[in-house]
Write a structure and sequence with these properties.
By secondary structure, this protein is α/β, with parallel strands linked by helices. 43% of the residues lie in helices and 13% in strands. The strands form 2 sheets. It has a 7-stranded mixed β-sheet with strand order 1-10-9-8-11-3-2, sandwiched between helices. A 4-stranded parallel β-sheet has the order 6-5-4-7, sandwiched between helices. Helix 1 packs across helix 9, helix 9 packs across helix 10 and helix 10 crosses helix 12.
Length: 403
């Protein structure tokens, strides 16, 4: 077995009662999408078909959802941030979210009823930018804490939206704890995209927000059902939401094989799946990976509940595979569309390419049941949100063992 990639397959007992996925399923996702559609910036992001790459890799089809176009913010995270803030506002106004639109949420009378609200979060960049953007758009305040080593460009993107943002000396999980403490101390509203015991309502709203991305992809597939879906995971919120959506939409219809991909320096969901002992397993320390958006050491409780019951495989990868994915997408074969994908966004394409190109990974290809008939769906969740690092990786190959 090749040692640079670790993987575990998870069997699901058909007789076991599974975690409910109705609230991240198709019907609820329609409500979420309608809320997002009310924003003037809303456009459905492209679902790109890479026909030549599919031919090169000897699979039936390969499609990538390109989230670099989302709301002009270069990443998908704003879907969760905008929706959770919308849900919070709707609750304060005693409204159902289906009644709330961007026009209503920015109405002066509504703003007067709400008063001044400060939303606080910890982020490696994209989630905090989505929170700052939404707070700014509805005339509220935001405070954002970033972990040690965060890119200054990502910090600037957040402060330019009016947020009080700073890079701390903490890792991601400690920054989350600090944001929680500050929320309690200052009376702010914690809008964190990870969940733990006692804090699950708002993180679940964020997960529901992500389902717009899955709903769009389902519409864009026009009836073509993928056989394989690859999803990257940090805490597992996005991966859990999309796994739940597709498990709901395809239930009883040959559900696609869902594979969760993480950096080997922050593979908390992989470790939890491998242990299979009913406990959540964490990664501590600096988690020094180029996949900044996935550098999370503690699984989200609600994300894991879905992944545990519906995801089929968990894979842990080194950084150079994500870097390979960035180059593959940025340098397309013949007339395939070009996708600018950041370090976290390209992790899954990097893995797919490596598995199907490298004969020593036959064991993994067999585990994932990839073959000529495979129809693969991936999500490029961010563009070049750290442009300097994007160029360093794509132009210079500045990652160990990239070659």
């Amino acid at each position: 077995m090749s040692e640079y990639i670790k993987a575990v397959h998870r069997e699901h007992c058909k007789d076991k009662e599974r975690y409910s996925i109705k609230s991240v399923g198709y019907e609820y996702a329609k409500t979420v999408q309608r809320y997002h559609e009310s924003f003037p910036e809303y456009r459905m992001t492209p679902l790109v078909e890479l026909k030549n790459l599919a031919e090169e890799l000897d699979v039936a089809s390969l499609k990538v959802k390109d989230e670099s176009y989302r709301f002009g913010l270069n990443a998908f995270k704003v879907l969760g941030g905008s929706y959770c803030i919308g849900r919070y506002v709707a609750e304060q106004l005693h409204m159902d979210i289906s009644e709330l639109t961007f026009e209503k949420i920015t109405n002066e009378e509504v703003k007067s009823r709400l008063g001044e609200i400060t939303f606080v979060t910890a982020t490696d960049g994209n989630h905090g930018r989505g929170i700052a953007w939404t707070a700014n758009r509805i005339g509220q305040k935001s405070v954002v804490y970033m972990p040690k080593g965060s890119a200054k460009e990502r910090l600037k993107n957040i402060t330019s939206l009016g947020a009080d943002a700073s890079i701390t000396e903490m890792n991601y999980d400690d920054a989350v704890r600090y944001a929680s403490e500050q929320a309690e101390k200052e009376g702010w509203i914690l809008v964190q995209d990870t969940a733990w015991e006692g804090y699950e309502r708002i993180p679940y709203w964020i997960m529901q927000g992500y389902t717009t991305m899955a709903y769009e992809a389902y519409i864009q597939l026009k009836g073509e059902q993928p056989t394989h879906i690859f999803l990257q995971a940090g805490v597992g919120a996005m991966a859990g939401a999309l796994t739940g959506f597709f498990a709901d939409i395809y239930k009883g219809r040959n559900q696609p094989i869902i594979t969760i991909v993480e950096p080997d320096k922050a593979d908390c969901n992989y470790r939890t799946a491998k242990a299979n002992d009913g406990a959540l397993h964490t990664v501590t320390g600096s988690m020094d990976t180029i996949m900044a958006g996935l550098a999370c050491g503690e699984p989200s409780t609600i994300g894991w509940n879905i992944l545990s019951d519906y995801a089929d495989n968990f894979v842990s990868i080194p950084d150079w595979i994500a870097a390979k994915g960035m180059r593959v997408l940025g340098n397309p074969l013949r007339d395939d569309p070009r996708v600018i994908s950041g370090e976290s966004g390209a992790a899954t394409i990097g893995l797919v390419t490596e598995i199907l190109h490298n004969p020593t990974l036959g064991w993994l290809k067999d585990m994932l049941k990839l073959d000529k008939a495979s129809r693969i769906l991936c999500f490029s969740t961010e563009g070049d949100t750290d442009r300097e690092n994007y160029r360093r990786i794509v132009w210079d190959g500045a990652i160990s063992n990239c070659e």
